[in-house]
Specification:
A hairpin with a 6-residue loop joins strand 21 and strand 22. The chain folds into 3 domains: about 210 residues, Jelly Rolls (Sandwich), CATH 2.60.120; about 160 residues, 3-Layer(aba) Sandwich (Malonyl-Coenzyme A Acyl Carrier Protein, domain 2), CATH 3.40.366; about 150 residues, 2-Layer Sandwich (Endonuclease, Chain A), CATH 3.30.870. Strands 1, 2, 3, 4, 5, 6, 7, 8, 9 and 10 form a 10-stranded mixed beta sheet that branches. It has 16 helices and 23 strands. The protein is about 25% helix and about 25% strand. The relative contact order is 0.08. Helix 11 packs parallel to helix 12. About 5% of the residues have low confidence. It is of the alpha+beta class.
Length: about 575
């Protein structure tokens, strides 16, 4: 006997009608159950006979205040160009706008205006700590910010005029950004639903829904009630700092049950088990993640110095030639190594870095300080080691078995050429612990933008409460326009990375570039446009005046507000 098929659950409506008693068009509990963080919802007449609590001219006046966060966005349709001007704005800025294709965004308006703040009352069914701010946008016909995606819930209340909204509920909709505009606009956008909102209508969008709103017909004002949604990276970093502050110095990794090591340098299952007992939240990590983190951490932990790169990189062909002539591979004395087994081979850890490697090679590099190879070493051996000679190393980060060039003990040397300059930057970044200062009249795409340098910058920025990276950037708008990866890192980690721009003529005419870290190191280029200068790994006497000059310019400089991640 066949069972009758169960009736299909009716699909939820995407459009409902609200009222003064039910702005959501339904009880809040039903909205939370069916729509919150699940589905978009258009509520017609959510606020009947709505009158905006602030007028456009008052919003423009607020955008001119020093402490207000505002943006003026203009769109040149003919050339498909977008221009962003960050506040504080002036009357002259508004005089250039014209009567179409521009919009003004002002965030945190509820902090400035009590009537605007009163709009939060209908949203009291949500935890107050989830509410971020009320942002208000004013636009002339055609004004908007382009198609984009928000990573938080938002209620878009139409306050004045009409706005055309288009959204996509396609779960496979592409979400790549355009590389040619300053705003985080989508490269492709195909809407599945479109509406024209009138005053009092409200559109709810959960995180991740592509959408585009454009002013239609005349002046338009939209009130956005945005939620706060910290990223997992922010939560994890702050929790780690919180726990670290409360753990006593005597509470340490311990191994009273340690057995004889079967293979030198191996991070085995027993070590991972001890880590899980020692760390408050390690139980939530899978074995591969825990092993990879610990291998990187323990090989850079309490390193007084780190291996230095050679002045000139050694090519694979040159290395093979030296080995064929009888050269030996010597493990750098400042190198710390470990390895672990994985599902598809081994991982070799050296001074905070990780490389996939054959198990036999990983064992050998950790167990032996001098390696004799034949004339045709494997590619893995070439990648993991370099030719060594018995001479004093210098303290800078590099490959696991490369000896350093000779120096005077402070790592002082000339820098000439882009490869040498990139190596110097990486050495000084790797040597930094918590603090870094960068003076950058120019910022080329490859400067502080490759994977290795960004990894070191992220390490410093997430090193704890003392993390402090300060950057003086002469042309932040160009860096944003070019999509420089350093700007993206700043926008993700703005609590520990600060960027300012010099404003005084004398400071802007300073074309020299420099880097100073918190371990006495510096890199100085007299002319930022030329890759020639000098560096030192530990020379506080020379570093001190560079740090002082940086601090003085920093105090006179202005916040690069155009770089702040903009909630749209």
């Amino acid at each position: 006997m066949k069972r009758a098929p169960s009736p299909r659950k009716p699909s939820l409506p995407i459009e409902v009608r609200g009222s003064a008693r039910q702005p959501l068009g339904m009880p809040p509990a039903q909205f939370l159950r069916d729509y919150w963080q699940k589905h978009p919802l258009l509520i017609r007449n959510a606020f009947p006979d709505f009158v905006p609590p602030i007028q456009p001219e008052d919003l423009a006046g607020l955008a001119c205040e020093e402490g207000a966060l505002s943006r003026l966005i203009r769109h040149d349709e003919a050339r498909e160009r977008w221009q962003v001007k960050s506040g504080p704005l002036s009357e002259a800025d508004f005089a250039k706008t014209g009567d179409a294709n521009w919009t003004l965004l002002v965030q945190d308006v509820d902090k400035w205006d009590a009537d605007v703040a009163a709009l939060l009352e209908p949203f009291a069914f949500l935890p107050s700590w989830r509410v971020d701010d009320i942002m208000i946008s004013y636009a002339e016909p055609g004004g908007g910010v382009g198609a984009h995606v928000d990573q938080y819930d938002v209620f878009l209340l139409q306050g004045l005029g009409q706005r055309h909204w288009a959204i996509s509920t396609d779960p496979a909709a592409p979400k790549d950004f355009r590389p040619d505009v300053e705003l985080r606009q989508l490269a492709q956008f195909e809407p599945t639903h479109e509406w024209l909102l009138e005053p009092g209508d409200m559109l709810y969008l959960p995180p991740g829904v592509p959408h585009d709103g454009v002013a239609f017909g005349g002046p338009c004002m939209t009130i956005s009630v945005g939620m706060r949604a910290p990223s997992q990276a922010e939560l994890t970093g702050d929790l780690a700092d919180y726990l670290a502050e409360r753990l006593h110095e005597d509470q340490r990794y311990a191994d009273p049950d340690l057995a004889l090591a079967k293979a030198p340098g191996e991070i085995d299952a027993a070590a991972l088990a001890r880590l899980r007992r020692a760390l408050p939240f390690a139980a939530a990590l899978d074995e591969e993640t825990l092993r990879d983190w610990f291998g990187r951490f323990i090989t850079r932990y309490r390193n007084a110095q780190t291996p230095a790169l050679p002045d000139r990189p050694v090519s694979e062909a040159a290395l093979r030639k030296q080995l064929a002539a009888g050269a030996r591979l010597l493990r750098h004395p400042w190198s710390r190594m470990a390895w672990s087994r994985g599902p598809s081979g081994a991982t070799l850890y050296a001074n905070g870095h990780a490389w996939p490697a054959p198990t036999a090679l990983a064992k050998q590099l950790c167990a032996e300080r001098e390696i004799v190879v034949d004339a045709t070493p494997t590619a893995a051996a070439v990648a993991a080691a370099g030719p060594g000679q018995r001479r004093a190393p210098g303290p800078a980060q590099g490959a696991p078995a490369v000896s350093a060039p000779a120096d005077d003990g402070a790592g002082r040397r000339a820098v000439d050429g882009r490869e040498a300059l990139a190596a110097a930057r990486l050495q000084l970044l790797a040597a930094a612990c918590h603090r870094l200062a960068l003076h950058l009249p120019l910022l080329a795409r490859d400067d502080y933008g490759n994977d290795a340098e960004l990894a070191e910058l992220k390490r410093i920025a997430t090193s704890g409460r003392r993390a402090d990276i300060r950057i003086l950037l002469h042309d932040p708008a160009a860096a944003l326009r070019d999509g420089h990866r350093l700007i993206a890192l700043f926008q993700r980690l703005s609590s520990s990375i600060a960027i300012r721009t010099p404003v005084e003529d004398a400071d802007r005419q300073n074309t020299s570039a420099w880097l100073v870290n918190d371990t006495g190191g510096h890199l100085y280029l007299p002319d930022a446009s030329r890759p020639q200068g000098r560096m030192a790994l530990a020379d506080r006497a020379v570093q001190a005046p560079l740090q002082q000059q940086f601090d003085e310019i920093w105090e006179r400089s202005a916040r690069a507000s155009e770089l702040q991640a903009l909630d749209l």
